[in-house]
Design goal:
The protein contains three helices and nine strands, in the order ααβββββββββα. The protein is α+β, with helices and mostly antiparallel strands.
Length: 196
């Protein structure tokens, strides 16, 4: 079997030569693996930071909404002015939250179920402190109720900024609360007529 032994020896030598000629640099592979691990760790850090920021943003939005929910306004008293046809309407504005609200505008309207709304806008109130209620009066020609008398409680709408002064809110005549996301160009004297 000398030829077989020679063949095995030749093939063994060829394999050894191939392995010797192939210089695998394990240090470079380890560097690449380390680099990939670092990149993956950076990606995970970025992703966790984004999740944390989203959660913080959501928590801030919920805090702003919680404050806005505690702000309300309603008609407290109506009294007819003798001989004028007008009525003195007393409106209560309440901020029951733990922080102030700013730039509050309120309007009390007559027969707001119709297309043509007769309303009176109260003076701009720059700040309403926390846990406070304020009364304001205005004069308004009220529409008739179903029994022929004047409207007993005309509806009230308010717009105001929350404590962050970034969120502008509308509490409409039906009691719904909506954040106004348009620019402030709509914040005009006829704002209450334009809002659906």
């Amino acid at each position: 079997y000398p030829s077989l032994a020679r063949t095995v020896a030749t093939q063994g030598y060829a394999c050894h030569a191939a392995l010797v000629g192939l210089h695998i640099q394990w240090g470079d592979v380890a560097t690449w693996v380390g680099g990939l691990g670092t990149a993956f760790a950076l990606f995970l850090t970025w992703r966790l930071l984004k999740i944390t920021r989203d959660e913080q943003r959501t928590a801030q939005e919920e805090k702003r909404q919680d404050q806005a929910r505690l702000v309300s306004a309603w008609c407290d008293h109506v009294e007819q002015k003798p001989g004028t046809g007008l009525h003195t309407v007393t409106v209560k504005l309440q901020n029951f939250s733990d922080e102030p609200i700013y730039g509050l505008r309120a309007a009390v309207g007559a027969s707001w179920s119709r297309d043509e709304v007769q309303y009176a806008e109260l003076a701009l109130i720059y700040i309403i402190p926390p846990k406070s209620t304020k009364k304001h009066e205005t004069s308004l020609l009220l529409g008739p109720a179903q029994d022929g008398s004047s409207e007993p409680e005309p509806p009230v709408e308010i717009i105001f900024y929350d404590a962050t002064r970034r969120g502008l809110w509308l509490r409409n005549r039906f009691g719904s609360l909506v954040e106004i996301r348009d620019d402030e160009s709509r914040f005009t004297n006829n704002f209450f007529q334009e809002v659906d």
